[in-house]
Amino acid sequence: MTEASYPVPAEWAKDALIDAAAYDRMYAEAATDPDAFWAKEAKRLDWIVPPTKIKDTSFDESDFHIRWFEDGQLNVAANCVDRHAETRPDATAILWEGDDPADDRKISYAELRDEVSKLGNALKAKGVRKGDRVTIYLPMIPEAAFAMLACARIGAIHSVVFGGFSPESLCNRIHDCDSRIVITADEGLRGGKTVPLKANVDAALDHGDLAVETVIVVRRTGGKVTMTEGRDCWYADCVEGQSTDCAPEPMNAEDPLFILYTSGSTGQPKGVLHSTGGYLVWASMTHEYVFNYRPGEIFWCAADVGWVTGHTYSLYGALANGATTVMFEGVPNYPDHSRFWQIVDKYQVNILYTAPTALRSLMREGDDWVTRTSRKSLRLLGSVGEPINPEAWNWYHNVVGDGRCPIVDTWWQTETGGHMISPLPGATALKPGSATKPLFGVMPELVDADGKVLGGAVEGQSRHRRQLARPDAHRVERSRALLPDVLLDLSRQVFHRRRLPPRRGRLLLDHRPRRRRHQRQRPPDGYRRSRERPRRAFEGRRSRGRRHAARREGPGHLRVRYLERERRAERGPAQGTRPVGPPRDRPDRDPRHPSVRARAPQDALGEDHAAHPAQDRGEPARPAWRHLDARRSRGGRRTYRRPRGGRSRTGMTRTILIADDHPLFRQALRLAVSRAAPDAVVIEAGQLCEAVDAVRAAERLDLILLDLRMPGSEGFAGVALLHAERPDTPIMVISSADEAEAAPRARAYGAIGFVPKTADLTTLETAVARALAGERDTPTEGAPIDAMATRVASLTPTELKVLLGVLAGRLNKQVAFDLGISEGTVKGHMTAILRKLGVQNRTQAVLAARAMDIHFAD
Q: How far is Cα 32 from Cα 362, in angstroms, rounded to an integer?
């Protein structure tokens, strides 16, 4: 991390809402007298019944509860719309910029109140009542804001699903929250391409047994869609003739406001339920303080409302403060790479808040796209979504902001609902790559695996609360919106302690806690990339434009370095004893490296891990262990290296493929393999398509360790497919599925054995050793391989990728873009798929694939 820092300019310290002295005073007040602090902050809202009970929390497992402003009543829509419409009816609430630069709209607070009221009355006419759930599956159009605010107005709980998600992802979210109404559009527009939203809704409703009674469809493109009689209706017809008088429903501060689902990459999507009062106080406060917002300024949060950033800072936080907020339907590189900066000039944006991913993609295109625009209206820049690397930070500051705009690098997540750690532009010296200091009431801690608080300049595991909930409280504890002096373990996965140089008391957040694994889930323009794989564009002539995947820590992790004034301690072991293994910059890839042994996933395996036998004897580890990562890429295209055979003390080097989407469990399997076969070459794959490519590329393959539920195949199709590719290679299934049900089917599809993921390291090591020795579990009689499994197994990897794209609801041109092939080639592959599966059309191919449990996971 660069040592450069940017002190607070004198003019900012003078005119800022909060300077350094005010920050220290307010932070101390929030820590020592939280009731008084939050009672004062709650006055920023209009309450129907002002709260007298500010905070009531208990973390005793026998009496766990979190309540904020529990006796207060308010309505979010009234606070975000009505009170501003009464005092400033002509003030602009929303500036909407369509995908086409010529398509825009200006909505005043009075117009916003009328549109929200009419839709609220329309929802009531459809039978929606307080506490009902409404799923919103819309692009970034004004109707998305109308729908969210209308639900808040009548007391319904909205669940917004990002428009790029597949029908199956949509189905899971509808089913989980038991929505009765879905609001969608005929099609979405993104980067000049259409997204079949209504078709995806139809596929989702056909996919599962859902309780949806009504589908309201916004006519966005005029594309041809199928309307189901008695269920589907046009948005315009629903609101036509509705009254603009819709009284806001009085809501208790603890009543739920919205559900937003986290990534489903680690299992079923997890719904985060935010309540009304605490969430809106926190959203309004952080929007004002972090962005130093002043009335009349133009605020642009470039995030989609499908993410929490769009909820809190595009809509609720901004509108609660009476801001003019910009909604953008498109992408930053359409119709050209200057689109962001053209919008800034068009609307004279004062505050821009966007993601490092977008910045890195624009930085690669050169400075000319930026410098050809003025951007003189900008006074503050913000970063959100993942850690911003110092190179991108400096480019953002020097090129986009002309060196005059402070940058607030914010850290938070879906579960917190708002900023937790962020600089305040008038109070905090800025440091590229550092989120700097916590906000009021936020008291971060670093703990080890046992929950012991760490001190000094170390790396550890952060503690804060992660709250997952559904609206049915009898199934799982209901979540509450956070006011963040509440701390609890986020996860129990282990980090190693590392000595670090002094960094003057700031927080450096190395990684985001959640991952969005599947790159094909992103929009076809490639704008929204995987969060768990942040791209870093390095400055300099030789490396400009190259992208490198950052090291991933796994789901639920937040790796934080708390940096203090301490001397650098002496490094590691004595010279000459450092283990020989993978390259120096990738020590985390070798299970025998001391840093990996120190942070082995003990909770996942249930025991401590012994050192490598060679190290037990005081010898350096042998260099025969080589790690090949099937996920690594070059030039934006996936590449796979053939493992070269070789001999060691024990004979021919064995090659083992580990196919599992969980990085921590892959590490556990590497440890088991290193014990059972110390000289083995290990190939890793995180998705089924990667596993197939790796299997085809490997000259020699002795064992496949396969997880049943991987991205691309949540079932037994992966076993059948890999068995068809390598019928002589043993496949060991290692899964968290029910063994009694899954083991017989896995063996019938070609696996030689089944090991539950709850097994400890010794069991895993024994299973690997038995598999390498050729031992098989007792075969199950009477469980033949399904005929469709054999057909699916005949698909090539490219055909399988095409089929996954079809399952995601993508058009041929979108699938072609994702795979880097022509649309004609996609059609040719689709013809081959239909022939091999023995079906007549794409719909039958989708049904056949679903019967084989092949899914496009989100």
A: 44
Residue 73: Cβ within 10 Å count: 18
List, in order, residues 6 or more apart from 58 with CB less than 8 Å away.
Answer: 64, 65, 66
The per-residue b/e assignment along 221-237, b for 16 or more CB within 10 angstroms, e otherwise, is beeebeeeeeebbebee
Q: Provide the 10 A C-beta neighbour count for residue 665.
A: 21
C-beta neighbour count of 115 within 10 angstroms: 22
Distance from chain centroid for Cα 669: 25
Segment 756-763 shows an average pLDDT of 80
Tokens of 500: 């670090």
Residue with tokens 């060679």: 614
The residue assigned the tokens 């004893």 is: 577
Tens digits of residue pLDDT in 497-524: 222 233 334 454 443 333 333 333 333 3
Strands 633-634 and 637-638: antiparallel
The rounded mean pLDDT for the chain is 76
C-alpha to C-alpha distance for 512 and 551, rounded to whole angstroms: 11
Report the half-sphere exposure of 443 (CA within 13 A, side-chain side).
Answer: 13
- The CA distance from 805 to 809, in Å, is 7
Quickly state the pLDDT bin for 717 (edges 50, 70, 90).
confident
Nearest to 548 by CA among 460, 629, 488, 611: 629
Q: How far is CA 746 from the centre of its chain?
A: 31
Sheet containing strand 104-108, strands side by side: 104-108, 92-97, 324-328, 298-301, 351-354, 380-383, 407-409
